[in-house]
Design goal:
Elements: H1 11-17, H2 22-25, E1 29-33, E2 37-44, H3 57-73, E3 81-92, E4 99-110, E5 114-122, E6 128-140
Antiparallel strand pairs: 1-2, 2-4, 3-6, 4-5, 5-6
Length: about 140
Amino acid sequence: MSQVFRDAVSIEALNALSRNTLIEHLGIAFTAAGEDWISATMPVDERTRQPYGILHGGASVVLAETLGSSAGNLCVDTTAQVCVGLEINANHIRAVRAGTVTGTARAVHVGRSTQVWDIRIEDEAGKLVCTSRLTLAVVPAVRPG
């Protein structure tokens, strides 16, 4: 897929937008972007592990939805439209006990009313931890007031 983002992606702006949200609380940080993909990292620590000491599947889904939704909103004029999640699925492939995982969202379909993003989450060795697919609806932006 060729260029899908409306403008050049600012990693700094994405991270600034995440302040004081669940994204920041879990330690998710955007790290890189290309013409049709973005990446972020997330620590595997006390915030993201489940009681049995491994990465919580829900934390992986938060990372996947964060990446896909953020990428989707980079494709639209957010003064007129926003992308919101319709459906997400995730397959948890490998357990991770510590370190950092990296997720990468890639565009599958960027349409006028829907978008589909594939998100791949890997451990520090590049092994697949989780694969996810997110479908977004493109809806009119709600104006405050």
